[in-house]
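Data availability (excerpt). All sequences and predicted token strings are deposited with the supplementary files. A representative entry, L-gulonolactone oxidase, is shown inline so that the format can be inspected without opening the archive.
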Amino acid sequence: MSYSKKTNKFPEFLRSKCLFLLVVMVSCSPPEEPVKCSTKNSNCTITNSYGTFADRAVCRAGNVAFPTTEQELVSIVSAATEAKRKMKVVTRFSHSIPKLVCPDGQDGLLISTKYLNHVLKVDAEAMAMTVESGVTLRQLINDAAKAGLALPYAPYWWGLTIGGLIGTGAHGSSLWGKGGSVHDYVMDMRIVSPAGPKEGYAKVRVLNERDKDLDAAKVSLGVLGVISQVTFKLQPLFKRSVTYVTKNDTDLGDEAMTFGKLHEFADIFWYPSQRKAVYRIDDRVSSNASGNGLYDFTPFRPILSLALALLRSTEETQESLRDADGKCLSAKLVTSTLRTAAYGLTNNGIIFTGYPVIGFHDRLQSSGTCLDSIDDSLITACAWDPRIKGEFFHQTTFSIGLSVAKSFIEDVQKLVALEPKALCGLDLYNGILMRYVKASSAYLGKQEDAIDFDITYYRSKDPMAPRLYQDILEEIEQMALFKYGALPHWGKNRNLAFDGVIKKYKNGGEFLKVKNMYDPSELFSSEWTDQILGLRNGITTMKEGCALEGLCICSQDIHCAPSKGYLCRPGKTFQNARVCTRVKIRN
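Structure token line:
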């Protein structure tokens, strides 16, 4: 059967079959190691779980070390410091999109926390838990629950390590209590950082809530040293009640302002081109409430590699044919399938029988079963596994203060009114996830109560190929960053999101003072971290096609793809934006 742009029968048939397979698969190949070495632990390359960084560069290192104890970690940092070697920390799954794990040059040292993966202490009476930095979020959640305890808020993906999620400021969704950022529940932390010869070239810094340096260490981007251990303040385990409600997005701006204050774990899936929003009504309930619900989020489950290849091929065909209608039809099928399947919620761990879904917090707060199973030779995989033909995307994620978030939402709606099909591609990745975040004391944490907008969208394998409606997504990105002063998520985003970002943090200077004190020789710093911290220029790169991948904001036509009809022009509603616009006849 051949592809028909007019009818879309072929991709829709495939997509419906693939989504069925997406829901029912239960086994998976675990992700590949992010570090590969040509000889034993030497001459190495490092990547992330998606197989590429924003600039598609290959990062190299001379060696990788795998400490199993804090004592071994101190010895490794000591030897590297004495030799004046650059160092970077790498985690088991390496989920950060920016180049936070890349040391300068080709002779640096990677320090993996893969085997620093032990839960050291659970104190039920004090409601505290101490873990090594390589412990995964899933381990923490499960071991806490066994002791009748809970980390109140967490990212929805459990394949993150404690060191990694703290270092990048990862969060869940809540304006209640201290908010949804995991680092704001840190009581104590131990960091191994460089030292002088009198201290043996390395020292363990022990921080607690009375130390101001903890506000620097909570979100450190890995430039202060290696986090060894973390102690969290937990809560008694509790139950939650979850219900998803779909509404028209006409009043989304007003609704979003109050929704997070009404419900403790509130979030919103926004489908702009469909003009719909799905509200998550999610609150604590009595532990006596009946229910043993489970949230196994559908996109985080293992998926047949063949199904993923067919889905990717369909989207590539739609992009090459500029088939906006096809994308919109596919998007409606994707979102309706996810809603019908309750996004992976079940009332008893097996089937979904209706809302509300009630269950213990540890069974509802985070998921990621595509990480779980034995190797099946890539018959199945996580959707973004780079070893197969699967998802390949950009992620633009930023937080906008609650005081102006309504205006931003309305500006996006104006763009949709001008180009109704422009954001259908977002719905293929389940729309825009809106999470609530609270102001943090961390120097590089959230500066005010805000809404975090998480936008995932198609990325071409060809860096010089413009996307369908490239200009609309660029305008949204620039509007958020420059009109509304949005803060980028440290572990996601394209390069341009970090241009001048340190100026948006009122305590950015205090962070740099701590950095200089902990690592005066800048052994844990790199060109990339220096750029995002404002210590050197070059976070954006002005070259041919740079705007297509978010490596720059276009100022000349050559920064777009003029040979394909894309030229640098002002935005449609935000005139200060400079975007790559297709000036030939549009579909």
